[in-house]
Amino acid sequence: MQAFDYDLFVIGGGSGGVRAARMAAQRGARVALAEVAAMGGTCVNLGCIPKKLYSYAAHFAESFEQSHGFGWIGEAPTLDWEALKGNRAREISRLNGIYMQLLKSAGVQIIENWATLAGKHAVDVGGQRFSARHILLATGGKPSVPDIPGREHAITSNEIFDLSPFPQRLLIVGGGYIACEFASIFNGLGAKVTQLYRGAQVLRGFDGDVRSFISSEMVKAGVTLHLNTDLTAIERAGDCLHVRLRDGSLLSVDAVLYATGRVPMTDGLGLETAGVTRSKAGAIEVNERYQTSTPSIYAIGDVTARIQLTPVALGEAMVVADHLFGPAAGKKPRSMSYDFIPTAVFTHPNIGTVGYSEADAAEKFGKISVYRSDFKALKHTLSGSTERTLMKLVVDDTTDRVVGLHMVGPDAGEIVQGFAVALKAGATKAVFDGTVGIHPTVAEEFVTMREPISR
Predict the structure, then answer these.
(1) Class level of CATH domain 343-447
(2) What's the half-sphere exposure (Cβ side, CA atoms, 13 Å) at 371?
(3) Which of 18, 184, 411, 454 would bridge 347 by S-S if both were Cys, CB 3.0 to 4.6 A apart?
(4) Catalytic site residue 68?
(5) CATH numeric code, 151-260
(6) CATH class of 6-142+263-325
(7) pTM higher than 0.70, yes or no?
């Protein structure tokens, strides 16, 4: 039998790579992990965590304003952008250290350098060659900026967290969840935000009611949204940028954030050397066990471009670890289902969703019933805010199963996480109707909607 330096060599220190390396090492495998950047990947360093921290920061301005309706008197404090950036950086650094310690405690050898495939069982890291029985690619994705005149003046979500100075006028290009989240965040922090999207409505792929509702709420909160439009060029003009739109009009802004999609990070990995194939879109192709076209090489997370969510990468990592080295003692091997994966969009207000949109449910199940509620939350009867909440259920008439649950409102992600368990377990509308609500809460609306708005 051929001898290898390692049983598993992981390329990429993001959520998926770290989880797979830890689990494999805990089961007795000899594991190494190579990472050239800060440990934790996009989620910890340039995605979920810093974005959520900035979202919290952005909520304070409206909270101070709304407090007057509850008897609090006085002027709101002002934002210290540099202090926010510094506090965020310290927290991310702390998390980087935790990830490093988790790996070291599990016995994983960490190699801080760029890794390239050198064969079906070989990896080159900074000129040093290692052999491994199995190799796992978990390199994630990166922002994509189209090739337009002046693209060098644009920034992406990688740079937005440390932008200096604070952009008083921010243009955001894109209509996906990243674009919408940063539009809400910087609007809340005090910037004058303009968002451009070439489509007819933001958040393609989400439920139609959710899309139109959040669009309206964001505009009501102060975001200037231009649909069915795009920019054609960016020009530097002194301290500001001139942005030319498709209709010939001109905008003057301080910064342009491109959030028009992400692409898998596969360049420079040596995929061709090892015979690993990619799709036309550039993602690494894998089977149900996350095996690539080369059986000894696996891939998980955003580099496969299946569902680009951190918990999905974590789940895939567990499947790979169980498949290669067996499950934990007393446990069954894990499997990964892509049905009823909940997700949240941290716009203001938040979006939480799980299951099928109304359109997708109608196409899959045929006969469906739709329950919908749109209301002003109790808090805003005194706050002075005009913000409204949307809650929606989609039911398969044949089985009475709730197959879609959608919310736009405060803490939507926290609320929908719990209901995701119910949908995953196959809860019916009768089960929802028979569940006692907690009063007064927004969440109780999901178990008190009785009359469908359409069938």
Answers:
(1) alpha beta
(2) 22
(3) 184
(4) no
(5) 3.50.50.60
(6) alpha beta
(7) yes
